[in-house]
Structure formats: structure tokens, C-alpha cells
Design a protein that fits this description.
Length: 388
Amino acid sequence: MKNLQCKLTRKRWLEIGVSALLFVLIIAWALVLEYTEPDREATAARKRFFAVARVTDILDDNAETQDWTEGRRIGQQYLEVEILNGPWKGETLEAINYLTIYTNVDAKIGTKIVVRLDLDDEGAPYIISIPNYNRAPVLLGLLAIFAALLLLIGRKKGLTALLGLVYTLACVWFIQVPMILRGAQPVVVTVVLVALTTAASLLFLNGFSRKTLCATLGCIGGVAVAGIFAALCGSISPLNGFNLPEAEELVLRASDRGLKISGLFVSGILIASLGAVMDVAMSISSACWELRELNPDLPRKALFRSGMNIGQDAMGTMANTLILAFAGSSLNTLLLFQIFDYPMIQIFNADSIAIEIIRGVAGTIGIILTVPLVALLSAEIMGPKKKA
């Protein structure tokens, strides 16, 4: 018993050590990327200043509600605002707030807003525009509620899931994005990122175990299948990163950064499908592990069949979730097609629709093929030992 406890303790310390190593690795990688970034010409956005301000007075307001604006007021406001942060904190400035159907920060006294400032010829600040409400407190509050619920209901598992999520987001922002901006191949970077974040997330959640190994290998395989299918479809279609909505703005910065835009299409699909594939892989692996614990002598064939049955149920719901997520992101486009009465041949062949179809189908195929892959891995790795 004592030896078992010692073994478990050593295993737990090894898990903690590997987890810490993964965090140190991403921090070191991010620091290297940050401090080796070559000097570049500042963009227009970097040359201007943004600050949070509070409306202290409304000097004039001619905005009115129109019948077609669904309650939005159109017009302009003349505001007096107090800057709440930055080098001009405490200063009171005046600003014209243009209310349009698209940009509509309808301010009242006490409203906190984000202002964009610049300097005049004498070095005094003035407000160029009011682009947004200050939504940071609301968003931070939502994140706090999410984290609290995760910890309250999940307890230890919730904490490890939260650590895995933080690690994944940090990898995307501090590793994937800077590497792609430096001219690295987006697909290669994303494949490495998927493998790293999958292993880290499942390790944080379950530690070293055959269950974790099966889920990790199955997830990486499923995402790889989704990426290969998307790449083949994109090549045949043809579609790539240049067909994405944001491509025009990226092209303007591609020449001085060496940015490779064509691979962004497949990279986006790899990242988008990772969560759903990981969910299915972990569900099957966990269920097979529980079956194996209840019946250590369960034959491999029976374990594989059980994994397939469990995976088929999860596959149906997760595939539906993924397809609906991609369909929801195209809702505005679908409405426009209906409004302008485009013929079906144009709708079906439009870049935006073709991209969403390939995204949804590729991700779903990744989920479908993850099921037999994880079931097979579970049967081989978790199955009973072969008798001599």
C-alpha cells in the first residue's frame, strides 16, 4: 500500500512537472518571438491613442429615432467627456458623436465610452471619434462568471479544464499569430499548435493515463483528417485564404511581413474543429476506460464495438453542433441572398457559402473518423493483456 502511494505521488509530481514545463515552454517561445520582432513602421492605428472616457455632459443632441432603425437614433451628439486613463487622465474634452445605423454609441451622462485621440499641431489632445462603448467590465464579468461556474461545478476537473483553456488561448495569441505574421506556413504552425494544445489540455484534465493517450492520438488524427479534407476541397474548388472576407486587408500588410495568406483557410478549419473533435475523442476514451475498469477481461473486439456505439451517439450531436455553428456565422449572407433573390447557382457557388460548407463538412468528417480511430486505439491500448 505504501509503495502504491509512493508510486502515485511520484506520478503526480511528474504530471505537475510536465505541466509546468509546458507553461514555461510557451512563455519562453512567446518571449523569443516578442524580443526578436524586427522594427516595423507603425500603422495608423498604432499612431493614435485610445482611452476610456466618461460622458459628463451632453451639450447638444439632435439624434432622432427613424421608423426603419428598430429603435436606434440617427444624428449626432455634442459631448463633454472626462478621460479616465492614459497620459491625459482627468482632462475634460469635447467631442462630436456621430450616430449612424452602423456606428451607434448613443451616449448618456455617465456612460463610459472608448474614444480615439490624436494631437493637434500644438501637442494638445483632441477626440477624433467614439468607436465603441467601454464593454470591458461586462466581458470581464462574463469571463468571471464562466470561470466561477466551471470551478463550482467541476471543482478539481474544472480547475484543470480552465488551465487547459488558458493554455490553448495563450498558444493561439502568443505563438500561432506571431509565427504566421512572421511568414511561417500557417498550416504547419497550426498542426504543431493543435498537437501541443491537445496534449496539454488532456494532460491537465486527466494526467498521464492510457485514457489520455487514446484521446490525444485520436484527436490529433481527427483534426488532421479534417485539415486534409479541407485542403483537398480547397484545391479542387479552388478556395484558399485569399477568398476569406478579411483577405483584402491582410494583403496590404503581406508584402512587408512575408505573410502567407493562402494557408489561412485550412488553418482556421483546424482550429475551429479542434474543440468538437477533442470532445468526441475524450468522451469515447473515458467511456472505454470505465468499461475496462468494470471488466478488465473485456475482449478487444467488444471494447471496440462499445466505443463505436458510444461514439455514434456523440458523433450525431457534435456534428450537428459544428454544422449549425458554421451556418449561424453565415446567417447575414443567407439573408442578403434571399433579399436580392439570387439564383441558386450563384448562392451555391459564392465564395462565402462554399467556404462555410467546406468548413462545416470538413469539421464533421473529422468528428466522424475520430470515432473509429479512438475506439480502435482504446481497444488496442486498454484491452486485456495477451496471455502467454
